Amino acid sequence: MTFGDVKTAEGLKHLNLFLEDKSYLSGFVPCQFDVEIFEAIPKVNANLVNVLRWHNHIKSFSAEEKKNFPPDTNPIRAGRVVIDDSDDDDEDVDLFASDDEEEDATAAKIREDRVKAYSEKKQKKPALIAKSSIVLDVKPWDDETDMKEMEKNVRTIVMDGLVFGASKLVPVGYGINKLQVMCVVEDEKCSVDALIEEIEKFEDFVQSVDIAAFNKI
């Protein structure tokens, strides 16, 4: 198949036909060739359903993800889409060699290596660590409770995935203050219920513990 300048209606029409049974312009994963053509197309007509599907898909990737697409190194390509205003007819050639042409061993190996490299890169991306930001209300028995000693005891708790933050005393009435302390926990490592149980073990100081705020990070 041949098509010309993708900035023209004729070029986009032929590109639409090319994408009728393909997800990408080269191989089975997006590459820099897809980015090149994506950036060359000024606007997609809604009637060009295949181009629109492909264009919206490439658009869904962030700029950083597009930058990390593998290069287009397919050696069996017969030519490139014309994306400038040159009148040189030699540039308006097949995007790919005919489907009937047999790929040689080198071409097949390059394609296999490219897919493998892209898959490995995706797998190496660090997994997101689910965390929660929590504000706890630690309530004393009465106004004679040593609040500094209470906080000191609370901060002695060590749990995997737990980090204590700022704290303050909040008046609750009759001269009694509660300790409000912030902390961040990794959801898979630290149970909030277990943390509350640990704090309530300081029975000489702590009457009860409530969750004042809970937000996923």
Give structural notes.
The chain is α+β, with helices and mostly antiparallel strands and 217 residues long. It has helices at residues 9-18, 32-40, 49-59, 63-67, 105-123, 147-154, 192-200, and strands spanning 131-140, 162-173, 176-186, 206-216. The protein folds into two domains: 9-123, no CATH class; 131-216, Ribosomal protein S6/Translation elongation factor EF1B (Alpha-Beta Plaits, 2-Layer Sandwich). A four-stranded antiparallel beta sheet has the order 2-3-1-4, covered by helices on one side. Helix 1 (9-18) crosses helix 3. The two termini are 50 Å apart. Residues 76-93 have low confidence and may be disordered. Residues 95-122 form the Elongation factor 1 beta central acidic region eukaryote domain. InterPro entries: eEF-1beta-like_sf (IPR036219), EF-1_beta_acid_region_euk (IPR018940), EF1B_bsu/dsu (IPR049720), EF1B_bsu/dsu_GNE (IPR014038), Glutathione-S-Trfase_C_sf (IPR036282), Transl_elong_EF1B/ribsomal_bS6 (IPR014717), Transl_elong_EF1B_B/D_CS (IPR001326).
